[in-house]
Amino acid sequence: MKYKEGITQLDDYRKKISDIRKQMRVVQAEIEPEQVPDYEFKTETGTARLSDLFGDKDYLFIIHNMGASCSYCTLWADGYNGIYEHLKQRAAFYVSSPDSPEHQAKFAKARNWNFPMISHAETDFAADMGYWSEAGFHPGISVFVLRDGSVYRISDTELGPWDDFNTLWHMFDLAPGIQGDWHPMNSYG
């Protein structure tokens, strides 16, 4: 296929994806919020309830992270570092994992992460949100809203290779064959 022909076809696909995303936003706005318990999490400074995590914001994004042992979760978290300052202008944001707060803090410092973390260890949070099964933890994102002192989940989605939440996949798409058998690692040194 000639370059111009291929680029034209790819532009057409990107427009279709954009149109589908618009349709998805309409459906998202129509979903009835789901009330959830006010879970208690461990933090580096003690404990915090889900409702406390909102701070002065109406919305809360919680990343369901599998912990430091998952190099893919680390890859996604490295990306959150870049958007955190922008996102926190509109919503609260936390990364939740089964790791202890001390382990989270050590790993976050080594990676220069600037976002807050919570530990869902010894809670039903991940399972109740659909991010734990007999096979173990699963990565994802849940979005919550606080209304009249109650917490409601308004959205969630799983994370996985080639999803919409990591720009690296889209960069790889622009260079066919670049990925090869590559998998993220926590360290390349």
How would you describe the overall organization of this protein?
By secondary structure, this protein is α+β, with helices and mostly antiparallel strands. It folds into 2 domains: 1-30; 33-173, Glutaredoxin (3-Layer(aba) Sandwich). Helices cover 35% and strands 25% of the residues. The protein has helices at residues 3-30, 71-87, 101-111, 125-128, 167-173; strands at 34-36, 40-43, 46-49, 59-64, 92-97, 117-119, 132-133, 136-137, 140-147, 150-158. A 6-stranded mixed sheet has the order 1-10-9-4-5-6. The longest helix has 28 residues, at 3-30. It is globular and about 60 Å long.
Helix/strand layout:
Elements lengths: L2 H28 L3 E3 L3 E4 L2 E4 L9 E6 L6 H17 L4 E6 L3 H11 L5 E3 L5 H4 L3 E2 L2 E2 L2 E8 L2 E9 L8 H7 L16
Parallel strand pairs: 4-5, 5-6
Antiparallel strand pairs: 1-10, 2-3, 4-9, 7-8, 9-10
